[in-house]
Amino acid sequence: MTKTSFLKRDEAVGLVILALIIFVVFPVMLDDFRLNLFGKYLTYAFVAIGLVLCWGAGGILSLGQGVFFGLGGYCMAMFLKLEASTPEATAIQSTPGIPDFMDWNQISALPIWWQPFNSFAFTLVAIFVVPAAFAFVIGYAMFRRRVSGVYFAIITQAIAAIATILIVGQQGYTGGVNGITDLRTLMGWDIRPDGAKTTLYFVNGVLLFVCLLVAMAIRKSKFGRVLVAMRDAEDRVRFSGYDVASFKIFIFCVGAMMASVGGAMFTLQVGFMSPTIVGIVPSIEMVIFCAVGGRHSLMGAVYGALLVNWAKTTFSESFPELWLFGLGALFIAVVMAFPNGLAGLFDDYIKPRLRIGRAAPATTPQPAE
Amino acid sequence: MFSGYSLPELGAIFAMQGFAGLILFSVFVLMALGLAIIFGQMGVINMAHGEFMILGAYVTYLVSNAFAAYMPALFGAYFFVAMVLAFCASGFLGMAVEWAIIRHLYKRPLDTLLATWGLSLILQQAFRSLFGAREVGVTIPEWMMGSLPVTDLIEIPINGIFVMVLALGISAAVYVMMYKSGWGRQVRAVTQNRVMAGAVGIDTERTDRMTFGIGCGVAGVAGAAFTMIGSTGPTSGQAYIVDTFLVVVFGGAASLLGTIASAFSISQAQSILEFFLSGSMAKVITLLVVVGILMLRPQGLFAMKLRK
């Protein structure tokens, strides 16, 4: 393979098909309500792409991606809430001009760390910088001491638990268990009508493709190769003179930023942000999106996020009792029967039939020796 | 923070909160012991540990109802029967799970984590379908109710003492099993070097299954003890799983003594902070300190010296 082309042919085809599905098939087939739901699913796909980079390529399983999703979501929600809480709109409160839940909790002035979120530019920067900084602190502390694998997973899970307890406990500053609700406009543009939701769906799709291309570029760079080498034989990479910890910290930060963008878009698309999307259970569900799609496949992760969420909505609408059984079985099946997820099944069974007469080498990555 | 309390009152507060902490400590120890066996010795992440505990609690609930209906005369003794049955139920389920799922995944610890999480969802829904979504409580036997007055200001509840005694007893039993019995020697041999253990004639597969089963059985007993101080719902187990894992990791995964020491420090810190701060902040601060210490000292409090 020469390095003249950035995308291989089948990757380009895959991207085009995905683009057709997201930008043509869904908008044509689905009504406004369903399309909005799929917009919500797309926001989860950002997290799944980040997880493919961290977990599939780098071997770092984070069970705390919900925290980063939440950080992005709360940054955006804080901005929208401040915009909705004009003195005129909140005139009946004892302190007009602050968010309603603060007023209910007897807080009479806007806390100092809320104030920068009056600025949209600051909010946009914060959506990238806050989760990246947080991920850097966690990553620096853990990877420098060579904590990885299971211990990293457990500690990130504990961080997700702490974040939820903290948000729920500090009701006056975070909106507590209800989260930040009743969001209205973004820079004067009403985000509540169906038309706005549809526009947001397309914005979501475009951003998702940007994320996908960034992730592909990372995977194809020399950095991406070092990452995979590190996953499979960390010591050899270390002995070859690479600074393993820095690579891990970087990819963990990238994963966190992608999750955060997803979270910010979630707030816009759905119109609220709450701690139920931050904690242990949603965080581990985000891992299953990635695992179902295929932990080594970026596009698989998008399909996984769409499919699992669609199944969740469908099943919990019609058979609420069966959904948890189904999700549980999915966890077990994806681990035991098809560890490379849908992408692995596609590579093993469908792809060879698509190119009869041409030698198609199996591209499914093998687990470490 | 201490203003407004006189000195004897403060002493009594610390003693009462310390005692509440001891009860929490007993619960942590009971939960963490099973996990210390499974995670510490076998390196398997069992996210369904909480559900094995809840299974024990539901067995206790069923036994207490059965005694109340058919043998009211012996009601005072039902707990001991329930404990044995809880151990068996959770233990057998654990062995079945090891056979069906875990043994295929020993080389992929992160995948075990996901698979057992799936198992925990299935068990939760099964409990919900069988016993309903509402929490159930058992009737505590007569002799376990009431409290012992120590001084004018300090009273300690009897069921708390009972749970503590139980925790101590089971810790001692686990210690004897792991370090004094032939079975324990086999378990430790398999953990340290699976290939060599197999070469000298230990049936490693059977040892794994027994170890996992006993770890789950201890969780079942913990669940039985749990019914004496709180009610049981389908998702009660999930609420404790993070604490339990932190206790085991904080103590140093392979050390039983470390598990007990870390359960003690975490529970005491949490219950004393709880009196002065809100419950949620006490928990946040305790967990943050634990996570912070783990970042500085990832091997935990009591680490086994190993060359990796």
3D architecture notes:
The complex is a heterodimer of chains A (369) and B (308). The model of chain A is unreliable at 357-362 (pLDDT under 50). The longest helix of chain A is centred in the middle third of the chain and has 27 residues, at 194-220. Chain A has 369 residues and is mainly α. Chain A has helices spanning 9-29, 32-57, 65-84, 100-104, 120-143, 149-169, 171-174, 194-220, 222-232, 234-239, 244-270, 280-293, 298-318, 320-336, 341-354, and strands at residues 185-186, 189-190. In chain A, strands 1-2 form a two-stranded antiparallel sheet. Chain A has one domain (3-363). With 308 residues, chain B is mainly alpha-helical. In chain B, 72% of the residues lie in helices and 2% in strands. Chain B has eleven helices and two strands. Chain B has helices at 7-42, 49-70, 78-100, 109-131, 158-180, 182-192, 194-199, 204-226, 236-251, 256-276, 279-296; strands spanning 147-149, 155-157. In chain B, strands 1-2 form a two-stranded antiparallel ribbon. In chain B, helix 1 packs antiparallel against helix 8 (204-226) and helix 2 crosses helix 9 (236-251). The radius of gyration of chain B is 20 Å and the shape is globular. Chain B starts with 6 loop residues before the first helix and ends in a 12-residue tail after the last helix. The model of chain B has no long low-confidence stretch (mean pLDDT 84).
Largest interface: A-B, 42 and 42 residues
Please report the total strand number of chain A as a whole number.
Answer: 2
Q: Roughly what percent helix of chain A?
A: 55-70%
Low-confidence parts of chain B: none
The H-and-E topology of chain A, N to C, reads as: HHHHHHHEEHHHHHHHH
Keyword list:
heterodimer, A: 369 residues, mainly alpha, two-stranded antiparallel ribbon, 15 helices, 1% strand, globular, B: 308 residues
